[in-house]
Amino acid sequence: MAIYHFTIHAYRDWRPDHPRGYAKRGKGYQPPDPDEAEKYDGRAKQEPAEFSREVQALLIRAAHDFCTRRRFRLFGVGNDRGHVHLVVGWRAFCAWEEVLRRLKNVLTTSLNQHFNTPGRRWFVRGGSRKRVQRRGHLDHLLDTYLPDHPGLFWREGPPLP
Fold first, then answer.
1. Which residues is 77 bridged to in the sheet?
2. Among 26, 51, 110, 111, which residue carries the largest CB count within 10 Å?
């Protein structure tokens, strides 16, 4: 079974003036840049997205539905106001890029339907992924890393929020 830890950031969450720097597509990690932050703001078409508790619960339920319909396994989800972590596994061949693309599409559609916000951007382009290859890594994600996030946490077993 392929298991991946996906991290998806909220639209406009991590600005270029962030004290820890920022990632720039095609150029990698960059130091903080207030001027670039102003340029980003000037080009932005929408307000920043923020994952409230309600949004976090919807993300968990929509991700669970996505996985159930495709016979994937959602091991766990951890949230923050600015990003969501999802640990997803699947048996059939499917590239992680395609899984992430479809997952983000379903999450966006679910949020826009719930809030009646057609065309609203909830996420940044892309997202990060890390292949989970050892049981110890999976256990660390589910027992420590995801629950340590300040938002809603869910793992297989308990009812959905």
1. 86, 154
2. 51
Q: d(Cα 37, Cα 77) in Å, to the nearest integer?
A: 30
Q: What is the β-pairing status of strands 128-131 and 28-30?
A: unpaired
The answer to whether 107 touches 10, Cβ cutoff 8 Å, is no
Distance, CA of 90 to CA of 30 (rounded, Å): 34
Question: Is the pTM here over 0.85, yes or no?
Answer: yes
**Tokens (6 digits) for 57:** 């619960």
Under the banding of pLDDT at 50, 70 and 90, the label for residue 28 is confident
- Highest CATH level, class, for 2-12+50-155: alpha beta
3-state secondary structure of 86: strand
**Using one digit for the tens of pLDDT, what is the confidence trace for 102-148?**
999 999 999 999 999 999 999 998 899 999 999 999 999 999 999 99
Q: Domain locations in the chain?
A: 2-12+50-155
